[in-house]
Amino acid sequence: MNPKVTSEVSKFDGLKWLVVVLLVAAGVVGNSYYADQSLLYRVVALLAVALVAGFVAFQTAKGKAFFTLCKESKNEIRKVVWPTRQETLQTTAMVVVAVLVIGLFLWGLDSLLGWVVSSVIG
């Protein structure tokens, strides 16, 4: 965790999470209750309820910490050194060859053991 982020837990965080749970429950119940309505209208209504629930969730201390984590993750992804096309192709080729070799080995071992067992059983 980032030491800059203080965990200020509000006394209303529990109430906010209750509102989020109630909104999600209302979305689920409403979607099943209005099953005879157009799918487009139900999806739009569910998206609206999800946006409101997300907005309320981001007002809590954990929601703010999650948002900060997402921002910091985005900055970290920019620092990643991605492999070149050649490195990717070489690594993929090595993995494919290794899988084929191990697959052939296991197929041979299975065939050998099957032949041994069938010889013993008769």
Automatic annotation (TrEMBL):
The keyword Transmembrane applies. The keyword Amino-acid biosynthesis does not apply. Its main location: membrane. The chain crosses the membrane at residues 12-33, 39-58, 88-109. It holds the Pfam family SecE. One of its GO terms (biological process) is protein targeting. It comes from the Bacteria. GO terms for cellular component: plasma membrane. One of its GO terms (molecular function) is protein transmembrane transporter activity. Keywords: Cell membrane, Membrane, Protein transport, Translocation, Transmembrane, Transmembrane helix, Transport. It is found in: Membrane. Essential subunit of the Sec protein translocation channel SecYEG. Clamps together the 2 halves of SecY. May contact the channel plug during translocation. Belongs to the SecE/SEC61-gamma family. HAMAP family: SecE. PANTHER family: PROTEIN TRANSLOCASE SUBUNIT SECE. Component of the Sec protein translocase complex. Heterotrimer consisting of SecY, SecE and SecG subunits. The heterotrimers can form oligomers, although 1 heterotrimer is thought to be able to translocate proteins. Interacts with the ribosome. Interacts with SecDF, and other proteins may be involved. Interacts with SecA. NCBIfam families: PRK05740.2-4, PRK05740.2-5, secE_bact. This is Protein translocase subunit SecE. The lineage of its organism: Bacteria, Pseudomonadati, Pseudomonadota, Gammaproteobacteria, Oceanospirillales.
